[in-house]
Amino acid sequence: MKIYLPLCLLFTGCLFHTGDVDRISGAGTLIDIPDDPGLISKASVEYASGIVYHDSNRNQQRDRGESGIPNVGVSNGLEIVETDARGRWRLPSSDDSIFFVLKPSGWMTPLNEDQLPRFHYIHKPNGSPPSRFPGTAPTGALPNSIDFPLHRQSEPGKFRAVFFGDPQPRNQTEVDYIANDVVAELIGTDARFGVTLGDILFDDLSLFGSLNSTIALVGIPWFNVIGNHDLNREALVDHHSDETFESVYGPPYYSFDYGKVHFIVLDNVDWHHDEKTKRSGYRGGLGERQLQFVANDLSRVSDNKLVVLMMHIPLTGTKDRKELYRLIDKRPYTLSISGHTHRQTHTFIGESDGWEGKEPHHHIV
Hints:
Helix content: 10-25%
Shape: globular
Radius of gyration: 20 Å
Strand content: 25-35%
CATH class: Alpha Beta
Distance between the termini: 21 Å
Order of helices and strands: EEEEEEEEEEHEHEHEEEEHEHEEE
Number of domains: 1
Largest sheet: 6 strands, mixed
Strand order of the largest sheet: 13-14-17-18-20-19
Number of helices: 5
CATH architecture: 4-Layer Sandwich
């Protein structure tokens, strides 16, 4: 028998108020964009470019009078650039890229019919590798301009968010259990958004659509973290194990701001295949590329801001956690939350696990 217990957390930002400055002058990876209209056209296949703009009528099309938004982060999963005064950005591209906007405080991305944030563009000219569960269809050449719409929204300094850990329904019957036992109880919640902390499903990735439409009934934006039961398990390399997840939700790791809090979604499920034994499996790990993204991301975040890390496997089960600790243990306000163990615990990570912060790090499972 499964018992579903959603977790609701109340966020109040940092312990003291220092004004409304969210960007450190000179921080992050900045680019010089020449005042040349030709920049927005694709100059070569090696670079993608576009505009982040104020979608005032929310039609997801840039209309006359809808201006670009400056100083907004855009990433390719490694580098992060900030838009110029006209909202323009430019980033290196490959044949397996996801470009995404980092939602700033006071702004929101569009949502699809399942309340999933639409904040990314997938560039896979040849599509995903063949798999039991489909990934991304061939996208063809890069568009001339990849534009990200944002609209303004009110975000209080004190707010609630709902977290699910490991709902992992095996079939439609168990999706219905979630609908009746959990979703029905959450309709009308005052939470501003929800997050599923991985193991969204139990290996049958064809259920993504059904579960998403069920959770959408809660009526709030819903973010999703990848778990070990959400993978393309026939993949031979880690970066092909999340093809179906990406086609549904977008990048497996990214960040966004809400109110005075900076949230980072992490993918710490490292899929690997042993050619000698012909066996595959997973372990807790982030990898160099993702750690560099986190470093680039945090270089743009003020030290007085609360940083919340969201992942599937607990930090203490992540092999390169000490590298992650070095990126956050000098910050006064950090919190992390995960799933995976099917138990709810509070862990205070200290010196014995390699943490070097003045105070132990609070990790909620």
